[in-house]
Amino acid sequence: MVGTKKERQIKFGRVVSNKMDKTVVVRVDYLKPHPLYRKIIRKTSKFHAHDEDNACQIGDMVRIEETRPLSKTKRWRVIEIVKRSEE
To answer: Structural domain boundaries of the chain?
Structure first.
């Protein structure tokens, strides 16, 4: 089907590293049941996201959106800072 656009994914996460220029590492936590025992397990994924203004600090809650590949590891960009860290 030519011409149909897929909806871009949006995730919420916490910034765990901002040491790179215009890049932050965002940790996204989610809950998933164990396939056999059905106990709820906390899972974590890390995403490299593009931060154009270097505005994010460690501990900030951010919203990231899927985008075209920007580098070898960056496939996400920061849309907004939802909550600043308390530090």
So the answer is: 10-83
Q: Are the CB atoms for 50 and 21 separated by under 8 Å? A: no
Q: Tell me: pLDDT of 3 over 80.
A: no
d(CA 49, CA 52): 10
| Segments of the chain assigned E as strands | 10-17, 23-33, 40-50, 61-66, 74-83
With a pLDDT cut of 90, the percent of the chain lying above it is 90
**Overall fold of domain 10-83:** OB fold (Dihydrolipoamide Acetyltransferase, E2P) (2.40.50)
